[in-house]
Structure formats: C-alpha cells, structure tokens
Amino acid sequence: MKTSKILLAVVLGSSGALLGAGLTTTDARAQSSTTGAIQGRVTDSSSGAALAGVTIVVSGNSSQTTITEEDGSYRITDLTPGEYLVTFFFGDVTIERRGIKVGVNKTIPLFQKINTSAAVSETIVIDDKPPAIDPTSTTQGITIDQDYTKNIPVPGRTFESTLGAAAGSQSDGVGVSFSGSSSLENQYVVDGVNTTGLKYGTVGSPVINDFIEEIEVITGGYNAEYGRATGGVVNVATLTGGNEFEGKVFAYITPGQLIAARERSPSESISIDATTNKDIDANVGFTLTGPIIKDRVWFAVGAAPRYVQNTITRTTKRRRDCQVRLPTGQLSACDPEMYGDGDADIDPATGFHIYEDLDSSKLRPNATSLSTLAKINFAVKPEHQGQLSFQINPGRSNNYAVYGLRTTGDYQADSMGLDGGVKWTSKFDDSKSEVEVVLGWHRDQLSGDANAAGARHVPFEILRRGTLGNWGNIMDLNGNYAESEITRAGCLDAPPPPPGMPRLDPYPDIPNCPDVADVGYRVGGFGSILDNTEDRYSAKLAVTRRQKLFGNHEIKAGVDVEDNISDEPRAYTGGVFFENYRTAIIANRFVQIAPQTTTDPKFDARCQYGSGNGDYVPCRYIGETGEGARVQGETLNWSAYLRDSWQIRPNLTVNAGLRYEEQRLRFAEYVRDEKDPLTGRPFGKNAIVMQGMLAPRVGILYDWTREGRSKIYGHWGRFYESIPMDINSRSFAGEATFRQQFAATTCNGVQAPDGYGANTGNGCDLQSQAPGTIIGLEGTAVAPGLKPQYLDERIAGVEYELMEDLKIGVAYQNRELGRVIEDVSVDGANTYIIANPGEWSEDEEAKLEAQLAAATDQEEIDRLSNLLRQFRGIRMFDKPSRKYDALQFTVSRRFSKALYMQGSYTYSRTKGNYPGLISYDNGQIDPNISSQYDLIELLGNRQGPLNQDKPHYIKLDGYYKFDLKKAGEITVGTRLRALSGVPRQAQAAHWLYGPGESFLLPRGQIGRTQFETGIDLHLGYAKKLAGNMELEVFTDLFNLVNNQGVAGVDDTYSISSSNPISGGSYEDLVFAKSNDAGSGTESSSPITRNPNYGNVNGRYAPRSIQLGARLSF
Amino acid sequence: MIRQVFLFETSANGFRNVLAHGWHPDVANGRQDADPPETEDDTHPVTTASVSGQAMRVVFDEILYGNSLEEIECRDTTFSRVPLGTTPDDIANCAVAADLLPALCKGEHAVCLNPAGVPVGVVDDDEDGAADNTRMIAGAVTLRCGTFEVELNREQSFWQPAGTQLVPAGQTPGTSIGPALIIAPEGGRMPSKQTDCRLAFAPDVTDKDFIQPCVPTGGEEDTDNYGDCTGGDLSAFHFGTESIVLSGSLPTNNSPAVAVTRRALQMTLSAEFDMSSVAGATATVMEGATARTDFTLTSTVPRRVDVTMAANLVANTMYTITVTNLKDTFGVVLDPIVLQFTTAP
C-alpha cells in the first residue's frame, strides 16, 4: 500500500557502537519465561550407580527442596534468576555447591558424584561450577545478566541496546533483527507478558537495564512454547526481591563536551543545513529490593528519570558565482564582477557546488522521560507463588522545524507506556506437576500537538519547485517571516543593477538558494494528527508434568489468548495535505468510498477520477474530526501448544512440540455495516481469520561427555508471523486517498512565478468536481483462501566445554520464508488485495467459477468476473523469498578468575526479493501492506542480497577485574564489532508510487559499503564501603577511536520516474529514460541523476564518553 | 534477439498500438485494448503499419550497448558518442562548469571533446550531472521499405534499457515492456502500400556479448517455444504498410440527400500525403453519366483534398468524384480516391 510511510532513521543506533554485543550461551528448553531450573543426576563416585533419595536444597532468592529419583535424577524449577547454593544430603555426607548461577529460561546441568563409602560428617564444599552448556535445549542465542550490562560498554539505556550481543543479530535501523529476519518479526516478553508493540511489532516496553535481572535473547531453535515470531524472542526478567535488602542508586551522564564532532560527508547541499549535536543525556535512578515478610512477600521498586537535549544548528546558505579555474589550474579569487560566469561555483575536489553561509540559528529539541518499576512476589507456600509487576514510563519531547516554518514543525509529543502483569505458579505432586497463569496488560499512548495556536486546524503544505529566497517571505501563523532578514536578503535573486548602482544580489546570474534536492519547504499545519493508544490484554495458562516413561519426560501444555486494540486518528490538520508544485497543486484527502448504488446520505460528495467523464464514486471526505477520523482496530490471537522434552537417556534428549495459532483481524467498527466497493457486500466483523497455523518443532541433542559438557544437536521448526496492527488501520478501516490536481491559477487567481513562495493550496476549490486519482478506489480485498506467513528453520550444531568455564560452538542455521502476506494490485493501485503473492487457492478459484456460472444477474456476473480476474492476477506476482544461511562460531568464557569473554564470528548470506516486514529500500514500515508487491512493475530487479546481508560479522565482548584488595577493584571492559557493509542499490522513482520504488539495477549490483569496525571501552573503579555498600565510578567510551564508519549511503540514483533495467549495469544508467511523473508515459528524456547518489548519508555515531556512578548495597 | 515489435495500425477500431511480432501474455491476441476482447486463438501479427503517426517499439530479450545507439548533446551544439565503459560518473565529470572541464573531463571515458580533443562540456542545464539530451546515432538503425529508406527522427527515436517482460505489464503495456528501441520515422511518416519493410542495424549495435540483434522465425507465442536466431539475421521480421485511403469527407461518402448547394467537396485521407502532388493529380467528377469539368482540385489542409464546383449541383443525381495520381510523401502513387453521393430531390 502506498501512502503513510514511516521512514527509517538512516543512522543506526544511538551511540558509536556497531550494534549489539555477545554473551554467554547456555540455552534451554523452556522454563517459565521469567525463571530457570537446575537439573542433574547424583551418582556414587566409585561405582557410578545412581543414588536415589538424596535430599537437595536450593537456597538463594528463595529456597526449594527436592529428592532424587530412582535413577538419581532431579529437577528444581521456578528459580528466579540469580546465584544459588545447592546442598546435597546423603546419609552423613553433605556437599555444598556454591555460586550456581541460574538464568532466565535456562536449565543448569548440575551433576554430582558422592563418595558413599566415606563416612564424612563434615560438609564438603565444592566451588567448581556446573557446565556452561545446556544439553537439553536447541535454542540459539545468549543470556545477558547484570554483570554484563555493568561491565561491558552497552551503547544504550534499555535492554534493546544489549540484544546485538547475540551471534546472528544486527541493527536494522528500526530495532535489532535476528537470523536474517527483520526486527519487526521479534517478540518481546517482559516478566512473562508480551509487550511487543502492537502497531508495527517494535519494542513496546523499553525497560532500562538497571531494572533488569536478566535478558534472554533467543535467535532461533525455540520450542512450541514460543510463537507469533519469525525473528527472535527476547525474554526480560526484571528485578525480583529476596530475603535481603538490596539496592542501588545510579547516575549516568553524557555531556555534549565529551562527544566528538560528527564527521560530515561532502554532498550536494540544499540551502538549509542542519547539524544535530547532543548537549546532554543524563539519567539518575534507584532500585530497591527486599522482603516485606521474610520468606513470604518480597518487593522490587525502581525509578529513573532521564533528560536529553540536542542542539540543531540550522544554517541557511547560498551558492556563489565568483570564482573560476584559471588557465594555470589555480582557482581565482572570489570576485563576482570579474568571474561571475553564470555557472554556480563548484568545488573541484568534490564536484559539488560551493555554498557560503548566510545566517544561523540554534534549535534545542529535548525529551524527558521517567522509567518506573514496581513488583511484588509472594509465596503462599513454597510451591504456590505469585507475582504482581508494573512498569510505567511517561515521556515528553519538544521538537522543532528545520525545513519550513517554525509554526509548522514545532510541536510537543507526550507518551505513556504501561505494562502490568499478574503471575501465579503452583506445584503439585512433589513438584512433578506445575501450573502457571500469567495475566498481562500492555498499553502504549502517544499524542502530539503543535505549539502554535491554530496549527492543528491548518492544512499542511509542502512547497516544491521554489527557492529559499521566496519561501523566506512567507508569514508564519504568528505573523513572522519564515526566514531572517539576512537569509531573505542573501537569497534574493535580483537582476544586475544599472551601471553605477550597487548590486542587491552579488550573484545575479545564478539562483542563489535553489532546492536542488527536492526537499521542499513545509508550511501550514503539521500534517498528520497524532493521538494513538494501543492496548493488549493477555492471559496465559501452562501446565507442566514430569513423568517417567522410557526415560524422563517433561511435558508442557499451554494456551494463551490476546486481545489487541488500537485507536488512532486518520486525519490531516485542516483535513487536507497539499503538495505544491508551483504550476500545479495536489490536494490529498482521506475519503470513504461507497458503491455506486449506495443511498446512504452521508456519502454526500462525488469523487471523480480518470477523465472525469462520468467516472466517479460516491464518497465522503474525512476531516479532522467526525466519523472515520479515528480508527479503532482489533486483533484477537489465541494459541495452544503441547511439547515434550524427552530425556531418553541422561545424555540423549528429544524435544518435540506442536503449536497451534489463530489470529482474527477485525474491521474498524464504523465500516462494518458499510459495503465493500469491490465485492458489494458488507464488510462484517472479521477482515482476516487466520486458522490452521500448525507449527511443529523437533530437536534432538546428544551429550557425548555424559556430564553436560557437550552437545551435538539438530532442530527443525516452523514459525508463523503475527500480523501487526498497522494493517487494521490502513486496510480494514476503509482508507482511500483522493488526490485532486489543481492548476495554481485556479487556486488563487495567479500562477506563482519561478521561485514562488506566496501561493498556496488554501485557495483551491476543494469541493469542486475536479477529477483526481483515487488510491484504493476499489478498496482493499482479502483474497479468499489467504494463508498465513511463515518460515521454516533448520539448525545443526555442536557445543563443547573445552575447559572449565570456556566453551566453544559452531552452528549452521538456515531460515527460509515459506509464504508471505502482502497486498498486491493488478489494476494499477485501484484495488489492493491482501494476498499471498504468487499463489491463490485453486479451490477458491473453483468456488468463484461455480458462483459465476450460476449467476444470472448481469451486475453480479460483472462483479464476479472482476473478482476472478483480480484474484487470478495474484499468481502473476513473483513469489516472495528470503533465505538466510549462517555459519556461526562462538566462544564464551564464563566469568572466572577475573575474566569474562564472549565472542562470535558469523558468516551469513541473506538473499531474496523480500526483506520482511520492513521495506529497507524505501524506508516504509507498513508490515504486510508495504509497497513492495503493490504493482508488478515494482518487482523488477528485486532479487539479490537483501539489506540484512552482511556476510561477515565479528563480535567480541569481555571484561577483566583487577583486584586491588583493600584499595578496591578496577574493571576494564570492551566491546568490539567488525562487520561487512550493506548492499548498495540504484533506485529511481515510480511515476505513481514516488521515490525509491523502482530498482533501476539488480539488487546489490553496485556492490556494498565498506567493512566497518568499532570498539567501545568501559573503565570502572569500585570500592567497598561500610557493610555491603559498594561505590563504583565508571566511564564508557563509545567508539573509542572515533571511527565514524559508513552506516548507509544514498541509494537514490534518480528522482525521475523510470522502470527497472533488468540485468543492467551501472553504465546502462547513462541511457535510461524517464517516465512522466503524472501519467507514467515513457519519454525520450534521460533520467536525472541525484548528485548525492552513493554519498554517505549515515555514519556511526562519533566517539562519546559516558560518566557514571553506582552506589549499591 | 528481438522479442516483440509494437507498431501503430489504423483499423476499424481506430488508430492503435499493436503487436506486430512476437507475443506477450498481457497483450491479448497480439493486440492491446481489443474491444470486444478477442480470443487467444485469434492471435495474429499485424502485417501492415500505419503510414502516419508511426513509432515502432522493438523489444529485445537482452540489453544492448546504448553506446552504439545514442549520442549525447554537447554545449557546442554537437553530439558526442559515449565510449564503451563510460559510467554516469564520467558523464558528470564532463558536465561541470567550463573552467573545471580540463581538470575533470579527461581520460578514455571523456565525452564531448572537440576535434582537438578539448572538452566542451555536456549540456546539463539542470546541473544534475546527467546529459539533458540524447539522440539516436545516424545509421545505427535503418528502416527500409522496398526501395525507400525511411528517414528517422533521431531526437524522438531512442534506446530504453529499462523495462521488463513482467505481467501484468503496468498501465501502459506498450511502454513498460523492454528493453526497447523506439524508432520514430520523421514526422511519423512511412511510405504507403509497401509490402517489405525491414529493419537493419549498424554492425556495432550489439548486446553485451557483442552479438548483433536477430529475429527468431515467426514470432513465437510463448517463451517455452521461443525460437533462436543467428546474430545479425533480421530476415524473419518484415511488415507492410497501409494504403492511404479516404477516411472522411464532406459530404459523407454515399450520402443519399446532399444539398445541391454543396459545391465545396472535401475528401480527408487516412494519412498525410504530398500536398504538392495535387498539381499532377487528376480528378473526374461524374454527374450521373456526365462528366463535369467546372471544378478545381486543390489541397490546402494536410490530409485533405478539395474539389470545388463552380456551380451548384443538380438535384437527385448521383455524383462520383475520383482523384487519381495523388502521391504520398515518399512519392508513392496512391490508389484512386473515390467519393460518391446523391443529391436531394
């Protein structure tokens, strides 16, 4: 679907970091998403015989006890993340295993040998650690704990900034993507509650790292407990209180003085230049955990406000015409009268025009936010425990206009994130059975309004084809000139004066301040009204049973339900958005369309299209308020699963699971009784009902050491996408856009001269019957027989604990999209069909053919014939493909002997013609309804290395602690990244769809950006104070060597409309011809060239230094 | 290999762009916009082309070197060929201000050099670094009909490397299918009544494997059976041209009750003809069985021949006006133009 794009930030990440970091790895079969487990086997050290009846006590945050089975095995679950003491009691023998660290959703293998012949009445203390390998799980990924976020320089404040640590992860400009998928295909779970953003699938609840106990990052190989994700799953467990009071007070600050200057790449400029520099990023906060009633009720609370301020230096500039290259090869002095030759001066070193500054101003956008955490855990009995948790995160930002009137772009946005969860866990039958219930609520609110009075009711307008000299004379809503007097005078284009008179314009033969990049100038109101709320209400029930039957089974069954609701406006300020091309003005309005036969009086307008000779549909304009100006969407999800982790032998495990999912996407309330323009039938309640999503998962693991120190494993699984709710607003709320084009002379009586600034769309007679284009004229249909989007995954790997605390691994991972949901159009964007491109059910075709054969009414015959033609057309489209193949080598050294280390090298290729739910190529974020498959001609040259394709990715994280004894402790941590560049493209506009939609050359034909490296450093000094109190001061140096590497280049070769050159090469672009932007008609004119094509337009952030202090107790 | 050829024909359905060679699933029955739709069994290539308003679209299955088809406009009003291997960056280097040309526009891929080898600059008024204008290289493509070499409009003829064979082929199938060579005869004119029009390419017009264009026999109907051909062999594609005929008149041809005062008789032909050939043309006006001689034969409006009677017509009489020896713009003698009507009683 074409309009309402959200553009990606070009620069990745917010710090100098080259994305993610890497970490430990034990992974595991599922426990609860917020707890872990310890399991193992107790044997006689001399005979090797299993020891039954050994009492095992686990104590830490909470205590649990169990007794070994006949085969010596045991398993203790529901352990909140943290360190535990495990004590084995057998006769007179008591053995203590200290420092057993349990992670979220991890099973720690703890095998214990007891010398039963020794009559020892004393306690044997063993300090060695259990193996770092979970021999029961095939999941890929890492676990990030507090030690990691404290000691590794993590370039961000929330958990999202740590996700890049996992092998196979990378930043994609919107979030962190895993294993070749886009970041919108992930699922984010906080304290057991799904907090994934509803509209797009982004991080919905950005919990700060200081509130987090542990983060589990699963990049693949997960079992049937997990679903609704074709990317990764991120499990976050927030702090949990224990029987001891603990807490910390912390502060971080990044002053602007400690941020290096941003490197700027030479580029063909426009007359407004904006440079953003950070002034300050500061946050402070505290956490406190402890008992309310010891062994019964515990709490955890935290609060952390943050303030960020940037300075945008806005500089206005003009070209000059005062220098020439002399025959000597030297540049002349700047003398307009002598060397003004009518050609604007060009810098021979760069080939770009030379600009001189006119005026400068500073804008200071800022943002404040508050993160809070409140959590209570309670144990009615040790086997019956509950949890209540809340995170509330309000925020406010003030933003300013750069390319236009201050009153247009100065606005304030308010946000509110809220997550609440209730969890209950009960164990029965000696903990062999377990029930877990989780209820959750996720809310996200975002609203914004202009600072200028009245801006909400004024149409937004982009002026194009002009110069800053004229735009600067526009008055804003407060009656002030758009630009300063200096700018207006400097940009003034005036003819040469009569002899003897002074020059008003030093460069009379050139346009001083042109807009060569077609950026335009924004005036009027602020455009789209922002006032969004989304809510998810969820409930989960899981039952686990451990059973002996030809080995040990852990059988888990579960069901979960989600009701997702979104409410957002669909309105322009002033009800219309103008694109002003000087001679022509295009008015864009949202409209609701009805079939020709409608008698509903609310469709009181005629939207004429085509030539206007009788081609019209009844319609109603959707204004700022009223029916249709708000869209309520709803999606219901439910799923059920059954999985068995069968330990056939202690060192041989088979995991098998089956998951079933359903998804119901509903039409907006206000259109349910309306008739679909295409089918002529009422929309009804459900737009899409996705059923039959059966996702089998199978894994097998073998531990050849029989001690949990190795595993060789394989996994196969199918994963279904959960369709984000953007589609509800855009496709299931009757959205259509009516574009009317007016001659400027009909809007205000005069056609603006070149370099205009005065005329505006406000004079256009919007109620006229002027024919226009209706995008979505026939509405949006869902292809009958639509099937869900899924991917299949295959994994094979080996892990081995080379020595204590050090393990290595290698894994091959393959992921391939099996089917995709996208909207297509076979009639030139009149009708959008949500379909599986490239396939349409033959059964549904036969049904429709039978209906057609039985129809007698000519109108019905025409309607069915049209439907049949449209649906058959779906098969004409290329089948979307995305194939990810990766070979990952990992090494990790658990913290031991003062050293922690984690590293990975991933060789991967991601190829195909469909990058996923993000259209990286044009910046569009409209999951499942992007423009990628809208028109057949957009598909040319799409096959090739996708944006995610970065073949080589090296990650290395580590820290070392220098023990200075009484003087304290020094920590040195580092984070190293090295990665391949991104594939480059050559794109042009499509006449109807606009910039960046046409792949002039095959994807990746131009090569890729350069290989980049980055290193971050953490230095900390900690000193014990009284009692358990410790004070640590630290600094994080991000992008230590200030290598502001290339994160992106400008892939727009031309702003002209042109079709793809199939199999073409760069040389062929010399001869490519353009299409008329209004009609698509081919011309003999060569396409224009973007002077900035291939120039760097995104760099990794410059070196910055964060200072911090943490007082923990 | 040439995959499709589109050209314009004049038919009962009007002037339209049709498929003259090859096949495309989105162009039903060899025709676009067939109304009512024809069945696929009716597929046939168009063998006669309109002799006015003509522009052919020759679609290839591979990209040709544009370097041997087009040249770019230079600031000294000449046009320059583009050396093989020249990239858009090379063109941009030769599109800078004059004072910078010596420093930037040099090397084997420099364009727009005067006979002395000095760069004069590419015409680039919009300063985007790309050439503003191109034109077809003289002799790169020739279109010959019998003994006539059809003059091409080199500005309107062009090479379009973009385009695909995807279906549906966009809103304007004729212009989204490519890569294509658009061949525009000067004024859109072709000699009429020809039976053997053929294309020819200069020897250096080749694809990226340096193979000259060729045409597979027949114009197969689907890609599975697509034929092959030998580079340079274009013999399998040829076409004829339409005759220029009466397409309208005042009074209307075969009118039954024309006023006797209608002395100005206008005959509009289906295409432009050589207006000066009227001087050598002959007209006869038969009033019933009697020949009238009190008229003049002129042509002052393109495509129109006027016979102006000196006196009124006779009532209730059949008139037959025959004009012979008119010629088209290539000198081909047209078939006699005949207008017949009957005056009112």
Protein model, in words:
- The complex is a heterodimer of chains A (1113) and B (345).
- Chain A has 1113 residues and is mainly beta.
- Chain A has a domain at 36-126: Carboxypeptidase-like, regulatory domain (Immunoglobulin-like), CATH 2.60.40.1120.
- Chain A is 6% helix and 47% strand.
- In chain A, helix 8 (842-854) packs antiparallel against helix 9.
- In chain A, 54% of the residues are buried.
- Chain B has helices at 88-93, 101-104, 173-176, and strands at residues 2-11, 14-22, 48-49, 56-60, 70-73, 79-81, 134-136, 141-145, 148-150, 158-160, 180-183, 197-201, 240-241, 246-250, 255-258, 264-269, 282-287, 290-292, 295-298, 304-309, 318-324, 337-343.
- In chain B, the strands form six sheets. In chain B, strands 2-1-4-11-10 form a five-stranded antiparallel sheet, with no helix packed on it. A five-stranded mixed sheet of chain B has the order 15-22-21-17-18, with no helix packed on it. In chain B, strands 14-16-20-19 form a four-stranded antiparallel sheet, with no helix packed on it.
- The radius of gyration of chain B is 25 Å and the shape is elongated.
- Chain B starts with a strand and ends with a strand.
- The model of chain B is unreliable at 29-43 and 220-225 (pLDDT under 50).
- Classes of the chains: A mainly beta (1113), B mainly beta (345).
Could you state the order of secondary-structure elements of chain B as H and E?
Answer: EEEEEEHHEEEEHEEEEEEEEEEEE
- Distinct helical segment count of chain B: 3
N- to C-terminal separation of chain A?
A: 55 Å
Radius of gyration of chain B: 25 Å
Unreliable segments of 5+ consecutive residues of chain B = 29-43, 220-225
The greatest interface here is:
A-B, 53 and 55 residues
The computed structural class of chain A is mainly beta
DSSP strand count of chain A: 58
Return the average pLDDT of chain B rounded to an integer. Answer: 88
Shape of chain A: globular
Percent in helix of chain B: under 10%
Low-confidence parts of chain A lasting 5 or more residues at pLDDT below 50?
A: 3-31
Largest sheet of chain A: 22 strands, antiparallel, barrel
Q: What class do helices, strands and sheet pairing of chain B give?
A: mainly beta
Number of helical stretches of at least 4 residues of chain A: 9
Taken from the alpha-carbon principal axes, the silhouette of chain B is elongated
Task: Report the CATH architecture of the domain at 36-126 in chain A.
Answer: Sandwich
Strand order of the largest sheet of chain B: 2-1-4-11-10
Number of domains of chain B: 3
